[in-house]
Amino acid sequence: MSKSTLIAAAAFAAAFVCSPTAGAEDLTALRAEAKGIIMEFAGLLKTELKAGLREGGAARAIEVCNRKAPEIARQLEARHGWRVSRTSLQIRNRDNAPDAFERQAMERFSADLEMGADPDGMVVADVIETPQGRAFRFVKAIPVASLCLDCHGSTLDPDVAAKLDEFYPRDDAVGHQLLGLRGAFTLEKRL
Predict the structure, then answer these.
(1) DSSP 8-state code for residue 120
(2) How many domains does the chain have?
């Protein structure tokens, strides 16, 4: 493990020292609820993206993702009472830039991936102190699936590249490889 990876891991661990945490049962229930919301979010988004692909290929799917992902997140927030979002170390939408907690989680995921870990099981969850009070944070890795590569891969169709320039002129979310780290689902619930 490199020195920078060790320093990042130590900083990450230090970030989780927080004053009184929820009980183990509460944390288990919060983790289960967060996983369920993520499954719902991922399922709804995947359905919308596949429909967009059928309608007009990857270029159409970009439009769908641009409009539908935030809409789905807002619906889930209203229904479940959690902040629901996606983020990445290579962001496409600047509104989804990671905060310090999310960045540390994804840096840990990246280091674990380099060591051969399975990205499907990568999760960071904890109760933290915020200026607004205690909150439960849950970050789950999004591995790069084959479906992702049309819009996030190294080689993009010219129509896809043009559509990305139109919707995301400062796009950094390309160049990904299969089973790499695409980003993360990120949830927060005030306690």
Answers:
(1) G
(2) 1
Task: State the burial class of residue 33 (Cβ atoms within 10 Å of its Cβ: 0-12, 13-18, 19+).
Answer: middle
Are 21 and 27 within 8 A, CB to CB? yes
What is d(CA 26, CA 24) in angstroms, rounded to the nearest whole number? 5
CB 14 within 8 Å of CB 6: no
Q: What integer is the mean pLDDT of 172-178? A: 93
| Res. 69: pLDDT tops 70 | yes
State the residue range of the domain holding 142: 3-190
Residues in contact with 56: Cβ distance below 8 Å, sequence separation at least 6, in sequence order: none
Measured CA to CA, the distance from residue 102 to residue 181 in angstroms comes to: 13
The pLDDT > 70 percentage for the chain reads 88
Give me the mean pLDDT over the 30-44 stretch: 97
Q: Evaluate whether 181 touches 142 at the Cβ level (below 8 Å).
A: yes
Amino acid at 78: A
Tell me what percent of the residues of the chain surpass a pLDDT of 90.
79
Q: Helices in 81-153 by DSSP H: which ranges?
A: 100-114, 149-152
